[in-house]
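Example for tutorial group B:
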């Protein structure tokens, strides 16, 4: 080797290792975020388990772009400020090339602008609030949006439960809860249904009696509770104590084993819209349920399934991009056409996939799959 060729080989190696951030070296680093502690901790636990299984499978098949993929996971504690901190840490300190996360819309809305500004492609597995992907062209999601979910809930209440009037109780400090309440109201009224009472409660409340008293007095045929499982369980108990005997309908936030543990008999005659059901008989679903259960000792909920799917969507995009450059991954994400456990994913112009919803009934303390609703 001629001396100058030797020098330039060293210079090239130095250049290669100084750029590319999380893709330099032997592995490609991807950030993962979920609320493993805080007000809805089962969401984060499931999300992390779903992501870990997906990473294991990709690495067993040789990783991506000839390298192993490394999940750098962070807990956002269900808190928007903490969410902003961990998005920044993953990007600046860990130098991840992409982020899968986070779960709760109010936290994702705090993190997405940080990923967008840094041009780090991001996919939230489960944040359904419309505004999330409106943040910018680097922000994608693996789930349907609140307008669809609220419509499905309202249609189910009106058509299947034959409700002519509805009461709504929602969290004024939770973008997801507010968004679903609004969409349910619009659709229900559009059908000719009446909103008998519509009450907001402050975030962090544990006593909902003032709002529920007004709602119960208005005698609605159905009570819509678009909230996270801890609040839902307490609201259900207090509504029953105040004499409400009718059905309750909610959204994906009900999906936690804690719902029936805390709510007990009060959450019976409860129905919620969700992304997926482990009772879905399609082979792709049953294969996944089997693998996940063998590893984690319990069947995957929607959080676990969508987190697993979101990792597949992101890694598939990196593979097709052929490099870990943010803009290249973003463009590859836009061209996604991938079959994952929860369905076939293609993104519309707003970076949202078009997907179906399922309706689940709480019966005898278990989740019973009722039906699938297509967009
Ligand atoms: N959709 C909820 C949100 O946007 C999060 C969630 C998804 C919770 C799925 C439970 C199950 O905040």
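The residue assignment follows.
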């Amino acid at each position: 080797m001629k001396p100058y060729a030797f020098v330039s080989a060293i210079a090239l190696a130095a250049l290669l290792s100084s750029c590319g951030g999380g893709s330099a070296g032997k592995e490609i680093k991807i950030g993962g975020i979920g609320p493993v502690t805080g007000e809805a901790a089962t969401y984060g636990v499931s999300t992390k388990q779903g992501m870990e299984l997906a990473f294991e499978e990709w690495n067993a098949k040789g990783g991506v772009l000839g390298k192993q993929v490394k999940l750098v996971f962070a807990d956002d504690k269900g808190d928007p400020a903490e969410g902003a901190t961990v998005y920044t840490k993953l990007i600046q300190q860990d130098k991840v090339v992409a982020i899968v996360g986070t779960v709760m819309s109010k936290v994702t809305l705090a993190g997405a602008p940080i990923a967008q500004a840094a041009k780090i492609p991001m996919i939230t597995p489960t944040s359904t609030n419309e505004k999330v992907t409106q943040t910018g062209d680097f922000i994608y999601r693996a789930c349907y949006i609140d307008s669809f979910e609220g419509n499905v809930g309202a249609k189910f209440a009106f058509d299947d439960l034959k409700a002519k009037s509805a009461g709504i109780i929602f969290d004024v400090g939770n973008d997801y809860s507010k968004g679903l309440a609004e969409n349910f109201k619009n659709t229900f009224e559009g059908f000719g249904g009446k909103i008998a009472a519509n009450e907001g409660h402050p975030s962090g409340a544990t006593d909902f009696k003032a709002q529920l008293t007004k709602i119960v007095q208005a005698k609605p045929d159905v009570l819509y509770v678009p909230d996270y499982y801890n609040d839902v369980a307490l609201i259900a108990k207090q509504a029953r104590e105040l004499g409400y005997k009718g059905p309750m309908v909610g959204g994906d936030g009900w999906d936690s084993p804690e719902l029936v543990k805390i709510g007990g008999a009060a959450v019976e005659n409860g129905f919620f819209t969700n992304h997926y059901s482990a009772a879905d008989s399609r082979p792709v679903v049953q294969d996944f349920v089997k693998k996940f259960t063998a590893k984690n000792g319990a069947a995957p909920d929607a959080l676990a399934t969508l987190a697993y799917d979101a990792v597949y969507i992101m890694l598939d995009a990196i593979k097709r991009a052929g490099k870990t450059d943010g803009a290249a991954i973003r463009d590859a994400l836009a061209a996604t056409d991938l079959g994952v456990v929860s369905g076939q994913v293609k993104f519309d112009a707003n970076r949202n996939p078009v997907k179906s919803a399922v309706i689940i009934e709480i019966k005898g303390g278990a989740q019973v799959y009722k039906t699938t609703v297509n967009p």
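The first helix runs from residue 3 to 18. Compare this with the pattern of hydrophobic and polar residues in the output above.
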